[in-house]
Design a protein that fits this description.
Blueprint: E1 6-8, E2 11-13, H1 16-27, E3 33-43, E4 50-56, E5 63-69, H2 70-76, E6 84-95, E7 100-113, H3 115-129, E8 147-153, H4 157-169, E9 175-180, H5 187-199, E10 204-211, H6 225-232, E11 238-242, H7 250-254, E12 257-258, H8 262-269, H9 273-334, H10 336-341, E13 346-349, E14 352-353, E15 365-370, E16 373-378
């Protein structure tokens, strides 16, 4: 499309769109070139046709926006991350609606780790060797915390997300918020200081370190050695919720639990009150049913035991009665009275049973006992 100007006397004036179109046309005449820089602000979405990123010059901080068709980018299979140094082959172009210069990438080659990424990798290896990231150091979060410490930016969206989510899930929760710098050269020292201060507060038994998303450079304070050591040295469990799902600052590795977002961190540190009450109601109902079943079982056992005891007592009485009767029969069989009933008599002289005729003399008074009674007599004659 031809770029036309409007004549105002001896002056030729271009509309903004015409100016941008003209500049864009001139840029298209430039050759393709290789550009070296560090990847930052890499943005890729399934619904987007292009992948967007920024190339940064580590020497002076100069940047240029770049884009590449998503299919072409995915086909390279580079799995690029923010902070990596690359060589990008492409040509400059102007995004005419906004007059923005950008580099349309035709190819990308990994050149090496960027300055920051290399430094982070060295620090990561050093701290890992000291055991700061070891799984056995991870502590479980309290089921129902007494007091929740929150370290985040002043008036930050992350602060609002955590507070709102905690209050919505568990209204009785007590929150102590420590606002701090979360970006810039002073942020690392400020975050480390805030962590130390909030851990010293009474009853704080879990801490959330939260920051919303940002560029690779924005999140660098959370990979600072001072912050990582402060997280590892926290006397209570700490949840790191820094950046988005794809971001992994070093403080995430030192924390006891990593949350993908500040809202997710809130869900980790407090239970849902409605679910908790429902669970308690179910437990109470279960205990009631269990107690009733236990009482019923014991009552059944007592009734069964009572029946058995009644039967046992009856059987015992019967057995004892039969035993008594047998003993009585034996006693009757052995009793002198039984002998007397067969026609025998018992003779006593002066209360002593007479066992021999020679023990009596004529004239002795004797008592004779028979089966149905007794008589008194006097010996008149003796027989040998």
């Amino acid at each position: 499309m031809k770029v036309e100007a409007t004549e105002y006397g001896d002056r030729r004036v271009y509309a903004v769109s015409a100016f941008n179109r003209g500049v864009g046309t001139w840029l298209q005449r430039l050759p393709t070139v290789w550009v070296e820089g560090e990847i930052c602000e890499l943005r890729r979405q399934e619904r987007w046709q292009s992948v967007f990123f920024t190339l940064k010059d580590a020497a002076d901080g100069s940047v240029v926006a770049a884009l590449m068709p998503r299919g072409q980018f995915d086909g390279l299979r580079l799995d690029l991350r923010d902070g990596e140094r690359v060589h990008v082959y492409g040509r400059p172009e102007l995004f005419e609606p906004k007059g923005e210069l950008r580099l349309r990438a035709l190819s990308i080659e990994r050149f090496g780790l960027g300055e920051h990424l290399a430094a982070l990798e060295r620090l990561k290896q050093k701290l890992a060797a000291e055991g700061l990231f070891a799984p056995e150091r991870k502590r479980p979060l309290p089921r129902i915390p007494h007091r929740i410490g929150l370290v985040t930016g002043n008036d930050a969206a992350a602060k609002r997300d955590v507070v709102v989510a905690v209050q919505a899930r568990f209204p009785p929760a007590r929150l102590l918020v420590a606002g701090t710098l979360v970006q810039g050269p002073r942020a690392a020292a400020a975050v480390a200081e805030a962590l130390g201060a909030i851990c010293a507060e009474p009853e704080v038994d879990v801490v959330v370190l939260a920051r919303g998303g940002g560029s690779f450079e924005d999140l660098l304070p959370f990979s600072d050695e001072r912050v990582v050591r402060a997280v590892a040295g926290c006397p209570v469990p700490i949840v790191s919720a820094v950046g988005h799902e794809q971001d992994t600052p070093l403080c995430d590795l030192a924390a006891d639990v990593r949350a993908s977002t500040p809202t997710a961190a809130a869900r980790l540190v407090v239970p849902d009150l409605d679910e908790l009450l429902a669970s308690l109601a179910r437990a109470r109902a279960g205990l009631g049913r269990g107690a009733r079943r236990s009482v019923e079982r014991h009552a059944e056992r007592l009734a069964s035991s009572g029946t058995r005891l009644e039967r046992a007592a009856g059987l015992l009485v019967e057995r004892r009665r039969a035993g008594v009767e047998r003993s009585a029969a034996k006693l009757r069989a052995l009793s002198p009275l039984a002998t007397l009933e067969r026609g025998y008599a018992i003779v006593r002289h002066e209360g002593v049973v007479v066992r021999s005729a020679v023990a009596l003399a004529v004239g002795d008074d004797i008592d004779v006992r028979v089966a149905d009674g007794g008589v008194s007599a006097t010996v008149t004659e003796g027989h040998a």
